[in-house]
Write a structure and sequence with these properties.
The chain is α/β, with parallel strands linked by helices and 292 residues long. It has one domain: Metallo-beta-lactamase, Chain A, CATH 3.60.15.10. The protein is 29% helix and 22% strand. The protein contains eight helices and 15 strands. The chain has a seven-stranded mixed beta sheet with strand order 7-8-11-12-13-14-15. It has a six-stranded mixed beta sheet with strand order 1-2-3-4-5-6. A two-stranded antiparallel ribbon has the order 9-10. Strand 13, helix 4 and strand 14 form a beta-alpha-beta unit. Helix 3 runs parallel beside helix 4. The protein binds zinc ion (2 copies).
């Protein structure tokens, strides 16, 4: 299996866009990219805007090559309604737009789906389903919370298997909850791309209690599934100090021979946390080329 993280927070934009070749099937998950409209009360830096454009171009390129596109939920860092031709002639798996969805995502789905219906080969509601396409199996979790409650709606987790299993959690922000974990443990993945705990809002929009649960759960994934690479990114890598905050998860990884890393690390690059460094980007032009 080939797994390529295309756009991620550790690569400088808000996204989890990932391309997978499983058996003879080419799959693109969550093809979109966005930026924090305001961080440290600052708008996106020109470097972030440039990176966003580069990531989008890569998404389009991988999208053209894909047979299957998966949309795990209707936030703009996971689907892009302004470029429906990306879905031209694709088999598209979408989060159920009618059930287990909040108002904002339901409205966005209502706008997006008619646009792709005009061009997609087939659109399939994914929640809780399993599919075989050629020699690959694609399985979707039942809807789970986006984060730790239903305020932001629901997402589907994705598991893709050929001779091994890759698991993509989408925006679980942790995972802190049992049903988010159940699917991961059941699938016994070798590689996991996980949306880590939202530590940059710790004690404010993300509780210490949920943070502790998430850390215990990440250790459990390492201990119980035999995962060899655990990629933690997205909400977690909006925090410049994310490695220190989850030091005990790294320790468990070392003990169990599991690489714990960012999506940038997965492809051999240094983190380039542009959003987390936004203040520095505006303040000190000398430092803008740090990172990859
Ligand atoms: Zn989201
Ligand atoms: Zn997201």
């Amino acid at each position: 299996m080939d797994i390529i993280p295309i756009a991620f927070d550790s690569l400088g934009t808000r996204s989890m866009a990932t391309y997978i070749e499983a058996g003879d099937v080419k799959i693109l998950i969550d093809p979109a990219v966005s930026l924090a409209p305001s961080r440290f009360k600052l708008p996106p830096h020109p470097m972030e805007l440039k990176r966003q454009e580069e990531h989008w171009q890569k998404i389009v390129e991988y999208g053209r090559a894909s047979d299957v596109i998966i949309v795990t939920h209707y936030h703009y860092d996971h689907h892009n309604p302004s470029f429906p031709s990306l879905y031209d002639n694709k088999i598209v798996f979408i989060k159920d737009p009618k059930n287990n969805i909040n108002k904002s995502q339901s409205e966005r789905a209502g706008f997006f789906i008619p646009l792709i219906e005009k061009v997609a080969r087939k659109i399939i509601i994914s929640d809780g389903t399993t599919h075989r396409i050629k020699n690959a199996k694609i399985r979707f979790s039942p809807p789970v919370f986006h984060g730790t409650n239903q305020r932001l709606g629901f997402v589907t987790e994705v598991s893709i298997t050929d001779s091994e299993t890759f698991l993509f959690t989408s925006d679980v922000e942790g995972p802190a909850l049992k049903n988010q974990m159940d699917f991961i443990l059941e699938e016994h993945p070798r590689i996991v791309f996980c949306d880590g705990p939202m530590t940059y809002m710790l004690g404010y929009r993300y509780s210490y209690n949920n943070f502790n649960l998430a850390k215990e759960n990440l250790k459990k994934i390492i201990e119980k599934t035999g995962v060899s690479k655990l990629v933690l990114d997205h909400h977690l890598t909006r925090d410049i100090n994310w490695r220190d905050k989850i030091a005990d998860v790294f320790d468990t990884g070392v003990k169990r021979n599991c690489d714990v890393l960012s999506a940038a690390g997965f492809i051999g690059l240094n983190d380039n946390l542009l959003e987390a460094r936004r203040r520095e980007l505006y303040g000190n032009k000398k430092n803008i080329n740090k990172g990859d």
